[in-house]
């Protein structure tokens, strides 16, 4: 896959990394290096080290397109530019080379996109991290294998030599190729990020939704020791149930044994069709994803973590049921309550019938909040917790344009997630929250207390932001209802 920016680029720099020469392009006030392979190998094999480039565009034919990352950094960040057609000390075709940057190495942010373990792309507009790069960060967004390629357990699975395979094979699998891709990407960052001006000893791992869950999962992996120094987890979402209950469905839709040999014999089109059939059985859950997650196994690194009050109240079927629960027609209300009770059983959730949107709230509680609170409870002394709330915009993904300070990027999508006039209403909050994350990634602690024994949570009021205000409310035990509804997830203290 050739970076699309080449078509419009007339200003470039070439940087030397271990794989060879990599070309980046000037985008406004920052440099973009796109589609850098960090691993290679077959679709259903463990990630192998990336092979050397055949050209400065990389050689994507040697890897899956999912095993790549992109980097955004300040123009003056790369310390060893080989060639440039805009740098004052290195004109294309000249023998001169820019002098090494005298700036100290920059902090690094590595971002893992969400998408229910079945979609998403590292180069989506919000994920390019321009604001972070403008503020002096070296920002990395990475792809990973998802769907069946990344998260389907296989009977004949190979493992890298340093993976512990002593676990009982009859228990839940804990090795997933998509998660291993992230380990490979972080190792690539450790070995190469200095060429882009980044500090491998100052890496913050950040993810949202499925990416937030993968951030937490990565912190459970002992082989990432020393690769991650801080973490930001935005609305993490794990599957509600594990693999053994799903294995027979996967066998049926794939038409054969769950082996790498059989799956490799299927075309990408066949795999896509099989996944669509498979995912229909799990419409109320993640069809794939890492499981089981044990917060107690996470390493102690400084952690910023939170959710949105009404994560999934905007889901169409949830809104439809919730609307009918308040109908003046008793028959409509009765039918809606029956559907709500079915959803409660299907989700393994606890319905808050007194809420104006009980079904939507239950989906968010069971899919997102219970996992976030499980992490907060386990990592009380190293976590700073937050929650977004508001009357029209505290929905899943509404935090993305805030953390990236990108309310004017992709305006139609911003409108969908954040409501009307989001750029005007929420800019004070975007400035505030983005700044909190940026300072955290520089090594500063947030300016509110840790979660701790009092379970303190910073609340960001999206309605107040519309009035040009940024509240400083810190609530005690804001997630009490979640703890009461899902007691089995949390340690007793």
Characterization of this structure:
The chain has a domain of 262 residues: Rossmann fold, CATH 3.40.50.1820. The chain is 31% helix and 18% strand. Strand 1 and strand 2 form a beta hairpin. The radius of gyration is 23 Å and the shape is globular. The N terminus is likely disordered.
Give the secondary structure arrangement, pairings included.
Layout: E1 12-17, E2 20-27, E3 30-37, E4 39-40, E5 48-49, E6 68-74, E7 81-84, E8 106-112, H1 130-134, E9 138-142, H2 147-151, H3 177-192, E10 198-208, H4 210-219, E11 230-234, H5 247-254, H6 260-264, H7 268-280, E12 303-308, H8 316-325, H9 330-347, H10 358-378, E13 383-389, H11 400-403, H12 411-418, H13 422-441, E14 456-461, H14 462-466, E15 474-476, H15 480-485
Helix pairs in contact: 5-7, 8-9, 8-10, 9-10
Q: How helix-rich are the residues, as a percent range?
A: 25-40%
Mean pLDDT, as a whole number? Answer: 87
**How do the helices and strands follow one another from N- to C-terminus?**
EEEEEEEEHEHHEHEHHHEHHHEHHHEHEH
Report the CATH topology name of the domain at 1-243 and 283-301.
Answer: Rossmann fold
Any idea what the CATH superfamily of the domain at 1-243 and 283-301 is called? Alpha/Beta hydrolase fold, catalytic domain
Please state the CA-atom Rg, rounded to the nearest Å: 23 Å
Biggest sheet, spatial arrangement of strands = 7-1-2-3-6-9-8-10-11-12-13-14-15
Q: Give the class-level CATH name of the domain at 1-243 and 283-301.
A: Alpha Beta
Residue windows where pLDDT falls under 50 for at least 5 positions = 1-8, 91-96
What's the number of helices? 15
- In angstroms, what separates the terminal alpha carbons? 51 Å
What is the molecular shape? Answer: globular
* Sheet with the most strands, sense and barrel status: 13 strands, mixed
The fraction of residues assigned to DSSP E strands is 15-25%
Level-2 CATH architecture of the domain at 1-243 and 283-301: 3-Layer(aba) Sandwich
What structural category characterises the helix and strand content? Answer: alpha/beta
- Give the beta-strand count: 15
